Amino acid sequence: MTDAVVDVRELRKTFRVTEREEGLAATLRSFVKRHRKDVNAVAGITFRIGPGEVVGFLGPNGAGKTTTLKMLSGLLHPSAGEASVLGYVPWRRENAYLGRMTLLMGNRTQLVWDIPAADSFRVLQEIYRIPEGQFRSTVNELTELLELQELVHKPVRNLSLGERMKVEFAAGLIHSPSVAFLDEPTIGLDISMQVRIRRFVAEYNRRTGATVLLTSHYMDDVVALCKRVIVIHRGRLLYDGPLADLAERMAPYKIITATLHDGAASSTDLDAYGTVVSREEGRVTLRVDRQVAPERTGRLVNDLGSRLADISVEDPPIEEVIDRVFTSEQTTVSA
Amino acid sequence: MIRTYRALLVAQIQAASQYRVQSILWMLFSVIRPVIFLAAWVAVANSQGGQIGAYDVRDFAAYYICLSLVSNLTMSWNAYDFEFEVRMGRLSPKLLRPLHPIHYSVVENLVWKLTTIIPLAIVLVFVAITFDARFRTTPMHLLLFVPSVLLAAALAFLSGWVLATLAFWTTRVHAVSTFWDRAAFIFAGQIAPLALLPGPLQTIALALPFGYILGVPAEILRGGVTIPTALQLMAGQVVWVVIFYFAFQRVWRVGVRQYSAVGA
Amino acid sequence: MVRYVRLLQLFFRTELQYELEYRLNLVLEIIQTVVVTGTSVAAILVLFSYTTILNGWDLSAMLVLLGCFYLVQGFGELVLQPSFEKFMEHVRLGTLDFALLKPASAQFLVTVRNFQVVQLAQMGLGAIVVAVGLSRIPSIGLAEAIGFPIALLCGFGLIYALLLALSTFAFWFVRVDNLMALYWSFMDAGRFPVDVYPGWLRVTLSSAVPIGVAVTVPAQVIAGRLDPLGLGLLMLGTIAAFVLASWFWRLGLRSYTGASA
After folding, report:
1. Which of B108, B147, C95, C153 has the most CB atoms around it within 10 Å of its CB?
2. What is the H or E stretch that residue A109 is in?
């Protein structure tokens, strides 16, 4: 990957926070001597993203995701480290770079509240110097993909949250950026709107070949869009690799679900085969170590014989894997 | 009622301590305009040998300092708040409580005045020294000033509420208050002491309520009117307070009925 | 450059369209500005019923000054006040980021972004008051006619620079509405020539809050009371204030993005 679109090396951001106690006396004291504390929001991360990739950027609140995105889009200067996006140093904020990237934030809007989005589009056309012909075709394409028809002529304040997010996407992509940073683009939306936004991002990536780095709280977004994920926690990189391998690397166990004919599952003792996670209505869920999973499954089939109605072996759900990663601090695993 | 007021007072003082900076700034508003016109009148008087009618330069200074103090003591901006609350639908919860909303603003006003009076006094002393103010106040004037400024505050408060109550009918209270403020600008004694308003303007000013809010108590405090005149002017204040009291009662009753009919 | 003019047109047009949707409101606002201006003229007339000259300013010159006051104030409220208010809101809500991500001058995109179209009426009335004052002055020389618009533009520039500098504090303190409110309350002092005020106030009004200069100097120019040197100094001062304020703004921006840390 020599032609990486996003190339990040040892990127760090340390915020200096002033701690102040309550009360007048403490306030006065803090004028003289401030208690400062350094918070490592991003503690040195390295990764590269190739052209056209859609990468999921995962981590709990406060992991440093948004800080990283802000550095990559040029809004924040890093404390140390290097990054280049499309060959530019983002925080120099050269117009040439800004014209080729976009940052979309699900909980913030760049549209003017009181006027229709179509008017905001015109302003953006002027700012990005988009030629009329290209502007028309981009707007038409986005209108079709996002089903915007009437929405762009209503004042933004009259739109629902989902509608507004669609228009927001159009505004953010109107200059056909080569790189898109999406920060929680589906936050607060209902399921069907989430699905439509997802479909749009996938289709947009397919049509334009834009590189996408996306953060989301909804694992469904990541599963649907990203082949590759980068996981960070407390500012450090925990995992970088295919989504499919995440479970294998991060969760060294499998889930065996056995369904019994006689409904006597509650009384049957299965502790010998693995850790029983749940029992209900003739169905038992077991957690077993990854290495011994095939052997244990074989034993279960043998021992239970005809009492067994169904059996399945799966990776644990992705949410569970992620959750496990974040609760148990693990060292960096890189694919 | 006293216990209610005490509770409201405590809560409001706590809230006010968070808005210290704002209160000081708002206090400056009641100083800046009087000082501007004071400076202008001093320039006019100087061009006429130092005397305009019964006022010399030092009398102007005393008048505008008193005016600033009175305007701070009587100022009532609840009309703006109220319109906002009606428009945003925040009034309904207040109407549900067993206490007339007017009591909240009485307390707010009281606290605001308590918190600004000391910084205001400091600024005014500074102005008095700069312009070398001379007061003609006698103990009798001071005695009369107390009821006079209370009447003025009541008048400002009630008339402010009558304006505010218009929000029940129209969303354009802002325009109405602009007209009200501009009339006060001319007739309340801001651009000139009432005694210096030219002929017809003075007659109109004495027939309107505005002068009784600012100019009248200011002149009494300065000692710029004789005691009999002061009493006469205070009678005018009483009349206007009574008029606005009944006007408010009436407008409020009809207004609340209207408001609940619309079901906002 | 052309792009920025076109953007300005776009900003203005969208705001105009929006205001035109509320016609009754527009009419009411215009009536209000007429009342405000009318009562201010009345106040001047009351003062001049006792004198023919105020600190060397006769009624005509005084009217020109009041007109300038409303021109400058109207300009401030037409574009600066709404834009700077919005700017502080953006800082508070974190939406300023979007302006910083655009391939255009962030200072431009932020500080002349919003308009209160109705304030054009205020400026128009100011111009009328200036015209009335001028009609009472027997003759105006060419130098004055050229100097006046220049001085007025400098006035606009000074007010812009001051507001830019004040609002820059928002990068560090977030809530600076109070500072702005203080400024607007001092603005009122511009309705009289700055030389009527006593020492400390005059100094404040000509330096820290240059409203005195911004209004008084254009009126002085038209009344033929300012030499070319004074005008030259005003121009230099305005440019210096603009450069200084812009530099301060960029400093604030750097701290906002953590470049200075």
Report:
1. B108
2. none
Please give the structure tokens belonging to residue A317.
């759900």
d(C-alpha B7, C-alpha B202), whole Å: 44
- Out of C95, C104, C257, closest to residue A108 by CB: C95
Q: How far apart are CA A224 and CA A146, in angstroms?
A: 18
d(CA B136, CA B223): 5
What's the distance, Cα to Cα, between the start and end of chain A in Å?
14
Q: Rounded to whole angstroms, what are the CA distances from C46 to A39, A256, A299?
A: 64, 95, 106
In order of start, what are the domains of chain A with their CATH numbers?
Answer: 6-244 (3.40.50.300), 252-314 (3.30.70)
Chains touching chain A through at least 3 C-beta pairs below 8 angstroms are C
Nearest-by-CA chain A residue for C259? A77
Residue of C4, C20, C85, C98 to mutate, interface with A, max A Cβ within 10 Å: C98
In-domain check, residue C109: yes
Could you tell me if A245 and A335 are in contact, meaning their C-beta atoms sit under 8 angstroms apart?
Answer: yes
Q: What is the pLDDT of residue B52?
A: 92
Beta strand pairing call for C57-58 and C53-54: antiparallel
Q: Is A33 helix (H, G, I), strand (E, B) or coil?
A: coil
Q: B touches A (3+ CB pairs < 8 Å)?
A: no
Among B237, B185, B194, B140, CA closest to B33: B185
pLDDT tens digits along C169-212: 888 886 777 778 778 888 888 999 998 998 888 888 887 778 88
Query: Chain C residues with CB inside 8 Å of B182's CB?
Result: 35-36, 39
By C-alpha distance, the chain A residue nearest C260 is A77
Cα dihedral value C38, C43, C48, C54, nearest 10: -110
Judge: C104–A119 Cβ closer than 8 Å, yes or no: no
Residues in chain A: 335
- Chain C partners within 8 Å of B172 (Cβ): 25, 28
Side chain identity, residue A290: R
> What is the spatial distance between Cα C239 and Cα C245, in angstroms, rounded to a whole number?
10
Q: Is C261 contained in some domain?
A: no
* C162 has pLDDT over 60: yes
**Alpha-carbon distance A274 to A292, whole Å?**
10
- pLDDT tens track for A73-129: 999 999 999 999 999 999 998 999 999 999 998 888 888 888 889 999 999 999 999
Report CB contact under 8 Å: C178, B22.
yes
CB contact under 8 A, C188 and B175: no
Q: Does C31 touch chain B (CB under 8 A)?
A: yes
Q: E strands within chain C?
A: 53-54, 57-58
Express each pLDDT in B102-142 by its tens digit: 787 788 888 878 888 888 999 999 999 999 999 999 999 99
Q: Where are the beta strands (DSSP E) in chain B?
A: 51-52, 55-56
Residue C6 sits in which domain range?
2-256
Give the C-alpha separation, C64 to C86, whole Å.
32
Token code pair at residue B71: 């305007």
Mean pLDDT within A3-31? 74
State how many domains chain C has.
1
Using CA atoms, how far residue A268 sits from A271, A295, A304, in Å, is 9, 20, 10
| Residue linked to tokens 């925990």 | A238
Residue B122 neighbours by CB under 8 Å, 6+ apart: none
Helix then strand count (H, E) for chain B reads 12, 2
What does residue B197 show for φ and ψ, rounded to 5 degrees? -65, 135
What gap in Å lies between CA B53 and CA A206, rounded to an integer? 86
